[in-house]
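Objective 1b: paired records.
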Amino acid sequence: MSDSSTARTAPAARPVDLTRFAWLSIAAAIATIALKTAAWLMTGSVGLLSDAAESVVNLVAAVVALIALRVAAAPASERFPYGRTKAEYFSAAIEGLMILVAASVILVTAVARFLNPQPLEQVGMGLAISLAASAINGVVAMVLIRAGTRHRSLALTADGRHLLTDVWTSAGVLVGVLLVWITRWDRLDSIVAFLVGINIVITGVRLLTASAAGLLDMALPEEDQQKIIDILDRRTDGEVAFHGLMTRVAGQQRFATVHVLVPCEWTVKRGHDYVEDLETELTEAVPGLRVLSHLEPDADPRSYLDQPTGAIPFQAAQTEPPERDCC
């Protein structure tokens, strides 16, 4: 029997248009910029200034995410046969770089204000306005993170986590400004702003790391890989075996390849029917998965020479021919 390959794409693998969430993020960024800028102008707090600067980064990042999500939602074509869902990783990378730039500005401003402290004014009203802006960011952040998790969108998840970091940043700034108001120690404002800058640097580095992993074809999450392995283990019955399992993530889409070893006396139709059932079970277990299965005769030594270096090891994987002659 000759080797054959077959691929199945689950209907859920088609990229989903998520741009409505990016528009929500843009609206939230504009609102919080206006509120936090007003709070800074009223109080003169460099901590609140750093908080407003991060909101500007949020706006630019949301616009970049909108563009990336539009590109990622485009259907596959002859030039891009696997779609363009990896565009989301570029969005996360750009956002990470912008965060680092904003953090640098905040750190420099904080040091300058520490050396030349200034008293704060109208603290109560400024804190109230900043608190309202944080509430907006908090609600939108949860919406984006849930949507990003549900649709496996790194762009939305990154944007949501950035907004959530902004909420915690704002909380730290508010506490700092409040303590300055109580203690009358003006330098405390710049110290809080400096700590905010360090926190933003950490967020930027994490986003860059996540985007780099996606661009380098990172494997599926362990829980999804385990679902695939469980199915292969269950189907390994002394007649059919598997090896060469590989997975990767590309934005919203997920891919898996596996070699299916069957007795050489099987007909092409029987082998084809088997891998069709296998791929159906895999795509039902891992929604959105695109499966490429390679059918091979188990007794042919050549079937064991093409195992990829990056294949995922699992207990039932077949690594050598059974003790019987190839047909």
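Objective 1b, second protein:
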Amino acid sequence: MLDILNIYNNIVELLSYQKDAPMLFSSGLFWVLFLLFIPMYAMLKKRRWQMITFVVAFSLYFYYKSSGFFFLLLVGTSLLDWILSHIIIKLNSRFARKLCVTISIICSIGILCYFKYANFFMWNWNQMVEWNFQPLDVILPVGISFYTFQSISYIVDVYKTRVTPTKTWLEYLFFLSFFPALVAGPIVRADYFLPQITQNNRATRNDIYFGFWLILLGVIKKAIIADYIAQYNDLIFANPTGYTGFESLMGVIGYTMQIYCDFSGYSDMAIGIALIMGFKLSKNFDFPYKSKSLTEFWHRWHISLSSWLRDYIYIPLGGNRKGTFRTYLNNFLTMLIGGLWHGADWKFVFWGAMHGVGLAIHKAFKPLLDKISNTWLVKAISWSITMIVVSLLWVFFRADSWQDSLLIIENIFIDFRPDYIPVFASVRYIWIVMMAVIIVSHSLPQRWYDAMANWFVKSPWIAKLAIFVVVVQLVIQFMSEEVTPFIYFQF
């Protein structure tokens, strides 16, 4: 009897929220629950309302396992949005309609600002007035920045008649809480996703296999490559002056690849899981490190965020319709907001601001650049400049403080010490192999990936099983002692 009670208590503890162990796509618990979820989901798929209720329940439980009882905050936000969206379409007064939109946005932004920026603003105010600042004991709900942006885009699109409000609150809650994209994106747009809820299409056989392919790619990127190379990168950023300039440079390049593998790996898994369920999420990464300008980089990196910033910040500010200076200013302000969205710290603001400056500079020189012949040398120089800027700015994104960022960059330029290269190669050879794999794979043409995906989809089940077993074995071989959270969970 005692053994049964202990088993019961262990199961309850495992299924309860644990602050230090949020449920991740890369955790074993999620995949066990997902394998239990899928058969029931398949049986309920054509019973639309039962399916919606089941997915909402699973999504809210998933969020509970990630952020505890903050899932109630998500429920409250969705209810307010849904009520206001129906009020908006019934009102004739433009002022009243705008008032409803303003109320919704203020509530969404207000909640986000409290949890994410309250201590940041209070600390800066304290620096000006020299008060005795005591930080608030605030826990940031996982993924709040992502679903806040979805909430804002929905209410704005309803106001601008781009979308029709969902008939029921449950459908809107399905959209806002859809678990594949809930905690780290891609940011889902209502005009793209809501019709899919209504259509309720079943996933085809090819969709399921392609979704499985994306999940395997995501696991390789995140659980094998990103988590392994992070072990060395973390050493560099934890001790900015404890390594040579060459080692620091390797750490910076390593983090440049780590954040891509980590975030694009999550996006691949999210898109793959959704595809298996019969839903399509927008592409979030398109080989961003192939870019030959910052403008191209932001067309390829975190596409759901950059397009959101364009449509709901840049264009409302005036876009490129207000003259040259305003175009540059709007670019700068949009990226500044994008930087602040990533974190409540001046180094994130600087990171966003510098990308804004870079975009403005590229726009200013584009007429001149367009006159230069697009030779391989020009492409190489353009790519090199872009990667240097992107990589150096990632330092401010990753380092623990502004001072650490400057120390790492300074160390690269004043203490390079190339004599450490042979030693580094002999000690960190697996890290080098991992880096080579991601750099080479990033350089391959898109048609190669399409061909590999098509082969996997059409391959016999024994080949799929063999690939799956190899991937699992590699994860076990290279996994760290504990599951590493996705980088973008903190946003």
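The chain has a mean pLDDT of 87. The first helix runs from residue 2 to 15.
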